[in-house]
Amino acid sequence: MTTPAAPAPHTLDPAAVVDEFLRLVMIPDPQSASRFTAPDIRIRFTGNRPMSAPGDTSAFNAKRYAWVKKKIERTETVAGGTPEDTVVYSLGTLYGAWPDGTAFEGNRYVDRYVVRHGLIVQMDVWNDSAEWLLVRAGLAVL
Fold this sequence. Notes:
By secondary structure, the protein is of the alpha+beta class. Helices cover 25% and strands 41% of the residues. This is Nuclear transport factor 2 family protein.
């Protein structure tokens, strides 16, 4: 698979780094997305699962969903960021299909990133998938 070339991470503002990273990881093309992460990135995925590379998140998603994409509603850069430490949030909803092929949309997510000198060094991911799975199991009502 050939992915269109993207600007070098250090030439992008932190929000653009996050947006391009998400574009690539949602293809999914975790190898290209890795160009936007530090070698020692710290990822905490849903359920506080530790991960160490974009490919780990793609592999996890491949088990939880038949397929999944993000509808990014907004990207917010926290005021006061510096090249050394800028916090960026990506907010929106997930859409896709569960492993049985049942479609879903409107599943909220919030991702928090720390960008340092143009590379993502930390990524924290939250979404409502666990709640949706509880509903599907008859254990909760939304």
